[in-house]
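Lecture 7 notes: from sequence to structure.

We start with a single chain of 368 residues. Read the sequence below before looking at the structure.
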Amino acid sequence: MKVLDRYITRELVGPFAFGVAIFLSVFVAGNIVLRIMRVAAEYHPSALQVLKYFLFSLPEYIVLTFPMSVLLAVLLGFGRLSGEAETVAMRTGGVSFQRLMAPVVLLAVGVSLLTIVFNEGVVPRANRASEDLYAQMIGASEQAVQDHPVVKEVRGGRLVSITYARRLYPKRGLMEDATYVGYRDGRPEFIVFGRRAVWEGRTWKFSDGLIQYVSSLDKATVVIPKGQDFAVEFRVSPSEMARRQRSPEEMTWRELRDRIAVLMERGVRDSKLYELQVQWHHRLSVPFSCLIFALIGAPLGVRSHRSSASFGLGLAVLIVFVYYVIWHYLAVAAEQGSVNPLAAAWAPNLVGAAVGAALIARVSRWGH
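Now the structure, written as C-alpha cells:
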C-alpha cells in the first residue's frame, strides 16, 4: 500500500505546484503590480524600493494560494486517475475510496501545518516590512489619529510598562482616555488613568484622572486634582507609538491574543476588538481549509470520463468562490458584532466538511 500512497502523492504534487503558480500570478497581477504601478506613477520610488516591496508582499498571497492549490491538485489528480480508469482498477483490486483518500488527507494536513508555520513566522514580518517600504515610497508619516493603541515598554528583558489609550493623536502628542500600568519585577506596581495625557519630552502628563497603587504594601487610590497633572516617565514618543501599532495582518497569533486581552480588560467592545478576534480565529481556520478542500475535491474529481485540466481549474475556481463568499460575509458580520467570531471563522469549514463527507459517502456507494 505504500507504493499506492507514493503513486497518488506524485499525482498531486505537480498540480499543487501548478496551482500555486497560477493563483499567485493572479494575486500578483491584481494586487501587488497594480499598487506598484500607482505608486511608481505618482511618487517615482527607486527600483530597489520597488523590488523589496514586491518581494515582501509575496508571502501573504503565497499563503492564500495553498488551500486553492490543494483543491486544484486533488481535482486534477483524481480526475486523471478516474479518466484513465485507474480508480476502477484499484477498486477491483479491493482498495476502497476511503483508503485512496489517505495520502490526500496526509498531504492536506501537511499543507495546513505549513500554512500555520508560514502565517506565524513569515507573513507578519513580511507584511510589516512591506508596509514600512510603502510608507517610505510615498513619503507618508504616521497616521493622524489611531484608535486603541497599545504599547509595551521593555528594558533589560523586563516588562516596565503597558500603555493603552482610546485614541492617540501622534502629531499633537495627545492621548484620550489613557491608561499607564507601571511594573516592578514583573508585577503591576501602579496604574494611572487620565481623561487626557499630553506628551512633554520624555514624560506623559496625565490629567483629570486617578492613580491606583496596587503593590502589596501601597494599596491606595489617589485622585489627580483638577488643574494638576501626574507625570509618568516614558521613553516611547507619540510618533514611535504610532509606528509600533500593527494591523492584524502584521501580528503573530500570540500578538493578536495579547492585544485582544488588553482591549477586553479595558472594556472595549467595538469593531476593532471584533476584527482582532476574527483574525485570531482565522489563523487556524483558514489553514485547515486545505483539508476541507481536499475532502470536497477528491470525490468531485472521480468521474467516469476523461476531463481536461481546464475543467478542473474552472471547478476549483467555482468552489473557492462560493467558499470565500460565505467566509467573507461571516467575517464582516462578526466584525460588526452580529455573529460570534469563533462561529464565523469555523462555520465555512464545518459546512465544507459536511459536504465533503456526503460526497465521499456517495462515491463509495457508487463503487468508483
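The mean pLDDT is 87. Keep this in mind for problem set 3.
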